[in-house]
Amino acid sequence: DRSPSRGLGDVYKRQPKQFGDAVIIDIRHEKDINGVTYLVLDVLDVATKYSAYLLLKNKTPAHVLEVFWDH
User: Fold this and answer.
1) Cβ-count burial of 16 within 10 angstroms (0-12 exposed, 13-18 middle, 19+ buried)?
2) Does residue 12 sit in helix, strand or coil?
3) Core-most of 27, 31, 39, 70, by most CB within 10 Å?
4) pLDDT of residue 1
5) Residue 68 DSSP SS3
6) Structure-derived torsion over alpha carbons of residues 6, 7, 9, 12, reported in degrees to the nearest 10
């Protein structure tokens, strides 16, 4: 059950406690102030709430993995 009343931590059997225990990633299209659209990898570390937007050239799995690991 993933009803809206449940928090993000409820998804995990054990709450992540340190950096790198669990990350959430999503590919997004974001526009800048001039209306230019960029493809970005949105990365969130669940334990620390550290967030990063990483610029992507394309959505191929190999490229996404490369950008994620290089960060």
Assistant:
1) middle
2) coil
3) 39
4) 46
5) helix
6) 30
d(CA 11, CA 20): 16
Residues sharing a CB contact under 8 Å with residue 20, sequence separation 6 or more, in sequence order = 45, 47
Q: What is the C-alpha to C-alpha distance for residues 22 and 24, in angstroms, rounded to an integer?
A: 7
The residue count of the chain comes to 71
Instruction: Give the pLDDT confidence score for residue 6 in this predicted structure.
Output: 54
Q: Give the closest residue to 22 by CA, choosing from 54, 64, 50.
A: 50
Tokens of 63: 């490229």
Q: In this structure, what are the phi and psi dihedrals at residue 67, rounded to the nearest 5 degrees?
A: -65, -40
In the sheet with 37-45, reading across from the earlier edge strand, the strands are 23-31, 37-45, 51-55
